[in-house]
Design goal:
With 395 residues, the protein is α/β, with parallel strands linked by helices. It has three domains: 67 residues, Archaeosine Trna-guanine Transglycosylase, Chain: A, domain 4; 112 residues, 2-Layer Sandwich (Transcription Regulator spoIIAA), CATH 3.30.750.80; 188 residues, Vaccinia Virus protein VP39 (Rossmann fold), CATH 3.40.50. The chain contains eleven helices and 20 strands. A seven-stranded mixed beta sheet has the order 16-15-14-17-18-20-19, sandwiched between helices. Strands 2-6-5-4-1-3 form a six-stranded mixed beta sheet. A hairpin with a 4-residue loop joins strand 5 and strand 6. The longest helix has 18 residues. It is globular. The structure holds S-adenosyl-L-homocysteine. S-adenosyl-L-homocysteine binds next to helix 7 and helix 9. The site of S-adenosyl-L-homocysteine has 19 residues, from helix 7 and helix 9.
Length: 395
């Protein structure tokens, strides 16, 4: 590995790294030997000169994102080994060679010891999304490592980093194929079929993190009239109709997502007779919500993108949840989510309590939800648990 600088932490500021927390904040650094640029590989030492870790230099307040902890330094074939370890975990969890589901997250950033990197497998296509310059610079090595791990199992590898990278202050040369080519791909998830447009779609193309929660909704959908707000390409809608919901209204502000939803319903042989598509701003729609839904899904985008947005974000969540709780039928179920990393579970639950108080209805928690097991969260990096969800019964 090409090491561009050595970073020495201040005395007493090495505890977090010793506890495997993968971020070094600039305030913990005593001195830097060398002039690391955003994305360079650097080594981290304690104040006494003991090697601690290796990581990527970053431009923001997180100065280093660690991908390897000591006592030994990274060996040869490091990246291939990391990918292979991540693959072995998915295999052990039953995600690979699964006839009912062939899409899963292979790399979940810090959860797989690779901060700044997400990789999703959609049947025979891998989509790489780098959130840091360091991971972006490694994309061709990572593609080679993926080819070695999967062999003929992959027909294409697509780099979809540009949007995520620009949000974290990095620059990319644009999205594109690192290997092979494909227009889109089709996956199955719990036996349901979906077309994944990883080129035009949002994020890497599909929200795999909701897989278990879609399966949970399937258990309760029968005989219910459903509103799926922030529906994207209709994951929850397909499951609900396939399991006997009497009617589903799907709502999203993206007309493109709604077109994809139509294709997904057809692919699953679901009649349009019991489905309505609405392209609208969910906040406007929810403010004049009718009272005849008995299952509502609220799965908005992150309303609080960073810590400083938390207050505003919570107000946004409270607004939509109050509208849903106020208007849902008695005995109705609300599947409500937040994917804001900056809002933790306690904040989310107390926001729901405020909504219930404002709506003057009794609300009971039936389930706590999170992301599926292909999104492992390091115990030392609780920030990784970004998705929170509750299934609520409104009396
Ligand atoms: N539940 C989906 C994922 C939702 S992602 C699934 O299971 O696949 C969030 C969605 O919210 C995106 O599709 C985005 O287009 C939509 N969105 C963002 N702002 C919106 C708004 N103000 N009103 C309606 N939809 C919105």
């Amino acid at each position: 590995m090409n090491i561009s600088a050595t970073i020495f932490l201040s005395k007493g500021r090495d505890e977090a790294v010793r506890r495997f927390h993968p971020w070094v904040f600039s305030g913990a650094i005593n001195r830097i030997v060398g002039k690391p640029e955003d994305g360079d590989i650097v080594e981290v030492f304690d104040d006494s000169g003991n090697y601690l870790a290796t990581g990527h230099a970053c431009a923001g307040s997180i100065a280093v994102k660690i991908f390897h902890f000591g006592p030994d330094k990274p060996g040869i074939d490091f990246w291939e080994r990391k990918l292979s370890d991540a693959y072995k975990l998915r295999k052990a969890l039953g995600f690979t060679s699964n006839r009912r589901s062939n899409a899963y997250r292979l790399i979940f950033s810090e959860g797989d010891g690779l901060p700044g990197l997400v990789t999703d497998i959609y049947n025979d296509v891998a989509v790489i999304q780098a959130h840091s310059t360091g991971m972006y610079l490694l994309r061709t090595d990572l593609a080679e490592a993926l080819k070695k791990v999967y062999g003929k199992g992959l027909t294409a590898i697509y780099d979809k980093s540009s949007e995520a990278l620009s949000k974290s202050g990095g620059k990319s040369g644009g999205d594109g194929f690192l290997f092979g080519t494909a227009v889109n791909t089709e996956i199955i998830e719990n036996g349901r079929r979906f077309i994944i447009d990883f080129i035009q779609g949002q994020k890497t193309g599909f929200f795999l993190d909701q897989r278990d929660n879609r399966a949970l909704l399937a258990k309760y959908a029968k005989g219910r009239k459903v509103l799926n707000a922030f529906c994207y390409t209709g994951g929850f809608s397909v499951y609900a109709l396939a399991e006997g919901a009497t009617h589903v209204t799907s709502l999203d502000s993206s007309a493109k997502a709604m077109e994809a939803l139509g294709r997904n319903l057809t692919l699953n042989n679901i009649s349009m007779a019991n489905h309505e598509s609405i392209v609208a701003d969910a906040k406007v729609y929810l403010s004049t919500l009718s009272d005849d839904f008995d299952l509502i899904v609220l799965d908005p985008p992150a309303f609080a993108k960073r810590h400083s947005d938390r207050h505003k974000g919570l107000q946004g969540y409270k607004f939509i949840n109050t509208a849903a709780i106020r208007n849902i039928r008695s005995g109705g179920l609300l599947f409500t989510f937040s994917c804001s990393q900056a809002i933790d579970n306690d904040m989310f639950v107390s926001m729901i309590m405020s909504s219930a108080i404002e709506a003057r209805r009794n609300v009971r928690i039936l389930h706590h939800m999170g992301h599926s097991a292909d999104h492992p969260v390091s115990i030392f990096h609780p920030e990784g648990a970004y998705l929170k969800g509750l299934v609520l019964m409104v009396d």
